[in-house]
Write a structure and sequence with these properties.
The protein is about 30% helix and about 15% strand. It is of the alpha/beta class and about 140 residues long. Strand 1 and strand 2 form a beta hairpin. Helix 2 packs across helix 3. The longest helix is centred in the N-terminal third of the chain and has 17 residues. It is rod-shaped and about 110 Å long.
Amino acid sequence: MRGRSIRRMTESHVDLTPMLDVVFILLIFFIVTATFAQEDALGLEPPPTDGTADPAQKAMVVAVAESGVVTVDGRPTDIGSVRANIERVRAASPDVRILIKADPKAKSGTVVLIRDAAYAAGYTEGVNFVLDRKT
């Protein structure tokens, strides 16, 4: 096979440096221009532990079981009538506090609904939250 020369294949090389530069510039751009939402925490107060709490002050206990059963002062009730129970007790004695006692495995949405019911009943403070840890 005269006249034909055999050429060797040359390896092609792609330079990835410009692509990495563009990726880093885009990353910096999106980090700088991103807006971060400010999350609001649950508006619940822990029970006072420093001894300043008045032991004679009455508290209405709203308990939430793991199964989702809601009890108000020991009586089972549905989530829709919690506000009516809170308003009834507040009308009888305005200085009563609300104590939400929840099982650690209870749904947080139920706790939030109870807290909202207490706020709708006129409580701006005095709504306490306790985890019911049975040992």
